[in-house]
Structure formats: structure tokens, C-alpha cells
């Protein structure tokens, strides 16, 4: 399992790097133009649909399918995957058809009146971007089938093929515009689907036409959507709400937020995806054995390690986010004023990293206990907080306030998850470790901040990349040195002492 996790994480990091190259090309060629606004808005509906459908399949299909494989019920498993493939394909074609046939009415539901040009441009983008649903949704489902047979590599490689093809296509396009962005995106999604299909053909899995034996299992899978889909729709609507509210502020706001979100999303994925992959089965096993003390210890260690990493990253973005954004984006059509705006939004988004990561870890525990009601409640809280903050920001024309909705919603939902966790394990030591880790992080990072600030003054005349490397290296080295000298690194990485129940020796009678 650990080997598979490492493969998934490494390929996931590679996807983030290649996808970032595409973002850099878009920034250099189109900046924050209306085409980029339309492109980002046109991606909202397909991204939302594919994410929700994928999450439903992960929570309702893969468990039953894996159990059929494990119990060697191969005929029923074949009927089940075949019948589900028909259902998933029909759903993907239906949603893609709606995006293609009625794109403008869809966009008018969310965009403000009086912005006819933005509605028309984003509707044209939705027509093409919606077509990506067919290869993406079907490919994601077939990827889950491969995962059920232990073929994790192909499912993790497919998104990388998507990113590589879309980047190369955009890089080779003579004069990139909105059409180029969409066609290269569609080409990438087709490449992703082809990788999955090729891997599936190698397994020689059968997809029989007679699937009546799996009718009951498919009905159960559909029934599970009733409590799960509302929760997933609410939790995944946060990013969509922010982008639609940003569109109300004016031209370029959606593009600016999109660049900052790309930087933030890469950080969040690296922090969360590796641990969240292995946490679900591990927590389920601990709970089934009644090892509550071990669960508390696990969350204490997660709190310690996550907080110091997030504190280091967030402070680094505060100190050097503008320099990093300048090095990564500021060329061609991406001007200095765009750099300042994106860096500010990136810093605001980084405030959500700890509640996002730690809240996700607790949510995995809830999933292990199949707490669909609690997941729905968390989605409602996140949705409400996002709606209120974005409404206030859009009403005042403040993009920073709209962007802060991510941090506010993550904080609100994490408070709920801590309350939920208190009903299952003792969270007092966990909260104590969060406070202790915050103090230790401050003692380590404050001197590192002082050194970085002093160096930034003396390195002002150096080339941008050299300036960023020197400042980042000095900040990192001072933080590491202080962590070692104070032995804080041992505390952050150690198993909490005094919490593991000691086995008492039996007394002879």
C-alpha cells in the first residue's frame, strides 16, 4: 500500500508541475484578459460535475466493487462494472450535451445581469469545455476499476498525460487565444481517457452485455447518492461561488483569482493528497479495533507536523510571495500590477492551508465511520460561510474579501470537525498540541523572518531568480538550524509521550 501511495503522490506532484507550466504560458500570452476570464468561467460547470460524480463513485462504487474482487465473485463484478459503465457514460453524455446545447442559459444563471459580453464569451467556452466531461468522467470511472485490481499506476499516469498534451499543444500554438485554450484542454482530456483505455485493454477485463445480475448493486449505488451528492455538491461549490462573485467585480478579477488559486492549489494538493490516501483505511482499522487512544495519538502527530509545515509555507508566501509570483509569471502580457494582485490573493488563500489539511484528515475519519450526515453538515457550514463572505466582498467590490471566503469557510468547517471529533476521541491533548506547535513555530520562524528581511535589503539589485533563491535559502536554513538547536524537530516528529496505555504485568495469585 505504501509503495502505491508513493507512486500516486509522485505522479500527482508531476501533474501539478506540468499543469503549472500551462498556467505560466497562459499568463505570459494572455495575462488577465477577458479571454482568461471566459476560460476560467467556462471550466466551472465541467469541473464541478466531474468532481461530484468522481467523489460519488469513490464512496459508493469502489467499496462494493473491491469486495466483489476480493471474494472472487468475478462474474458479478464484471456485470457490475459493465452496467455502471453504461450509467456513467450516459450521465457524461447528458451533462456534456447540456453544456453544448444550452450554454448561455446556464451561464446566465450565475453571472450578473448587464455583463452580456462576459456571458457570451463564457458560454462559448462552456460549449467546448463541456465536451471534456465525456473522456474525463468515463476515464475516472475506468480508473477506479483499475484501482480495484491494484493497477494504480495507469490511473495516476492518465492526468499527467492530460497535462503534458495540453501544455505541448498550447506551447506549439502560433497565437494562443480562447479557442486555443479550449481545444488544447480537450486534446489533453482525450489523451487522459486513451491512457486509461489502453491500460484497461491490457488487463483484458470483460464488459458483458448481460448485466441483469448486477441490477440490485447498481440500484444500491444510486441510492447512496441521495445522502452523499448534496454534501459533495455543497462542499465542491465553494470555488465556483468565489469565481462567480469575482466576475461581478469586473474584468480581470476571475483571471487574477485563477492564477492565485493555481499557486494555492498546488500547495494544498501536496500537503493533503499523500496522507489522505492512506488515512482512510488506517483510521477505519484503528476504530474497528477500538483503539481510541491510538487515534488520538495519530491526530496529535498530524496536528504537530501539519502546523509547522503550514506555518513555514504561509510565512514564506508572506515574505517572498511577490518575488515568487514575479519569477513565475511576470513576462509578456503579465504586468507588474498583476504580480502584486496575485501575490496578495495567494497570501490570503494560504491562510486556509491548516484548516483545509487538518479538517480533511478529520473528515477522512468520518468517512471511515460512514458518517454521511456529518459530511452533509460540514458541506452546509462551508457553503453558508462562503456565500456570506463572497456576497459581502462582491457588494463592496473587494476581491480580497471574496478570496478570503476560502479561509473563512475552511475555518468554520474545521471547527465543526473538531466538535465532531470530540464526540469520538479525547481532543484536549490535540488542541494542546496545536497551541504548543504554534508557539514553537513562532520561536523558530521569527528569527528566520528577521534574517530574510535583512537579506532582502542587501540583495535588492540582484536578478530576480537569484534574489528569490538567496532569500528562500536563508529563511529555510535559519528555521532548520533553530529547530535543531532547540530540539523542536524531535518534538514535532515524536510520538506523544504518556498517552500510550502501558500493559500492566499480571500478578501471580
Provide an overview of this structure.
By secondary structure, the chain is mainly α. It folds into two domains: 223 residues, no CATH class; 269 residues, no CATH class. The protein is built from 22 helices and no strands. Helix 3 packs parallel to helix 7 and helix 14 runs antiparallel to helix 15. The C terminus is likely disordered.
What are the defining features of this structure?
509 residues; mainly alpha; 22 helices; globular
SSE topology:
Layout: H1 2-30, H2 34-60, H3 62-70, H4 74-101, H5 103-108, H6 116-129, H7 133-148, H8 152-172, H9 178-203, H10 215-223, H11 225-236, H12 238-249, H13 253-288, H14 292-329, H15 336-350, H16 353-368, H17 372-396, H18 399-403, H19 405-422, H20 428-458, H21 464-485, H22 488-493
Helix pairs in contact: 1-8, 1-13, 2-6, 2-7, 2-11, 2-12, 2-13, 3-7, 4-6, 4-7, 7-8, 7-9, 8-9, 11-17, 12-13, 12-17, 13-14, 13-15, 13-16, 14-15, 14-16, 14-20, 14-21, 16-19, 17-19, 20-21
Helical residues, percent: over 70%
Please tell me how large the radius of gyration is: 24 Å
In whole angstroms, how far apart are the ends?
46 Å
Total DSSP helices:
22
State the major sheet: none
How many β strands by DSSP? Answer: 0
Stretches with pLDDT under 50, minimum 5 residues: 498-509
Q: What would the average pLDDT be, to the nearest integer?
A: 86
Shape: globular
Number of domains: 2
SSE order: HHHHHHHHHHHHHHHHHHHHHH
Q: What class do helices, strands and sheet pairing give?
A: mainly alpha
- How large a portion of the residues is in β-strands, by DSSP E? under 5%
Oligomer: single chain
Amino acid at each position: 500500500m505504501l509503495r502505491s501511495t508513493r507512486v500516486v503522490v509522485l505522479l500527482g506532484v508531476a501533474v501539478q508541475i506540468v499543469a503549472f507550466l500551462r498556467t505560466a504560458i497562459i499568463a505570459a500570452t494572455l495575462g488577465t484578459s477577458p479571454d482568461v476570464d471566459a476560460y476560467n468561467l467556462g471550466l466551472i460547470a465541467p469541473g464541478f460535475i466531474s468532481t461530484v460524480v468522481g467523489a460519488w463513485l469513490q464512496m459508493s462504487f469502489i467499496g462494493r466493487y473491491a469486495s466483489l474482487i476480493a471474494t472472487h465473485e468475478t462474474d458479478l463484478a464484471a456485470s457490475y462494472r459493465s452496467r455502471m459503465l453504461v450509467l456513467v457514460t450516459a450521465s457524461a453524455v447528458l451533462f456534456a450535451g447540456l453544456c453544448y446545447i444550452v450554454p448561455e442559459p446556464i451561464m446566465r444563471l450565475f453571472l450578473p445581469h448587464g455583463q452580456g459580453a462576459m456571458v457570451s464569451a463564457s458560454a462559448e467556452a462552456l460549449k467546448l469545455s463541456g465536451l471534456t466531461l465525456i473522456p474525463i468522467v468515463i476515464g475516472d470511472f475506468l480508473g477506479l476499476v483499475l484501482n480495484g485490481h491494484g493497477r494504480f499506476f495507469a490511473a495516476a499516469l492518465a492526468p499527467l498525460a492530460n497535462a503534458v498534451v495540453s501544455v505541448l499543444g498550447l506551447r506549439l500554438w502560433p497565437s494562443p487565444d480562447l479557442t486555443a485554450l479550449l481545444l488544447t484542454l480537450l486534446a489533453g482530456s482525450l489523451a487522459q481517457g486513451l491512457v486509461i483505455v489502453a491500460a484497461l485493454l491490457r488487463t483484458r477485463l470483460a464488459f458483458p452485455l448481460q448485466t441483469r445480475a448486477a441490477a440490485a448493486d447498481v440500484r444500491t449505488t444510486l441510492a447512496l447518492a441521495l445522502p452523499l451528492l448534496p454534501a459533495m455538491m455543497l462542499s465542491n461549490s465553494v470555488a465556483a461561488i468565489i469565481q462567480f462573485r469575482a466576475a461581478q467585480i469586473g474584468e480581470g478579477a476571475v483571471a487574477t483569482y485563477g492564477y492565485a488559486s493555481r499557486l494555492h492549489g498546488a500547495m494544498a494538493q501536496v500537503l493533503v493528497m499523500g496522507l489522505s490516501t492512506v488515512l482512510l483505511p488506517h483510521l477505519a482499522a484503528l476504530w474497528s479495533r477500538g483503539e481510541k487512544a491510538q487515534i488520538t495519538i495519530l491526530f496529535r502527530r498530524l496536528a504537530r507536523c501539519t502546523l509547522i509545515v503550514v506555518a513555514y509555507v504561509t510565512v514564506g508566501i508572506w515574505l517572498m510571495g511577490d518575488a515568487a509570483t514575479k519569477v513565475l509569471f511576470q513576462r509578456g502580457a503579465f504586468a507588474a500590477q498583476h504580480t502584486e494582485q496575485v501575490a496578495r490573493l495567494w497570501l490570503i488563500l494560504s491562510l486556509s492551508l491548516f484548516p483545509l489539511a487538518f479538517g480533511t484528515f478529520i473528515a477522512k475519519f468520518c468517512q471511515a465511520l460512514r458518517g454521511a450526515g456529518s459530511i452533509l453538515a460540514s458541506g452546509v457550514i462551508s457553503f453558508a460561510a462562503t456565500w456570506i463572505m463572497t456576497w459581502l466582498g462582491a457588494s463592496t467590490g473587494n476581491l480580497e474579501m471574496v478570496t478570503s471566503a476560502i479561509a473563512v469557510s475552511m475555518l468554520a468547517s474545521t471547527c465543526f470537525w473538531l466538535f465532531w471529533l470530540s464526540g469520538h476521541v479525547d481532543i484536549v491533548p490535540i488542541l494542546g498540541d496545536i497551541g504548543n506547535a504554534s508557539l514553537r513555530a513562532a520561536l523558530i520562524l521569527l528569527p528566520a523572518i528577521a534574517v530574510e528581511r535583512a537579506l532582502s535589503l542587501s540583495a535588492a539589485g540582484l536578478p530576480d531568480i537569484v534574489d528569490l533563491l538567496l532569500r528562500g535559502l536563508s529563511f529555510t536554513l535559519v528555521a532548520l538550524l533553530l529547530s535543531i538547536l532547540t530540539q523542536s524537530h524531535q518534538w514535532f516528529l515524536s510520538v506523544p509521550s504518556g498517552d500510550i496505555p502501558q500493559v500492566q504485568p499480571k500478578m501471580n495469585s
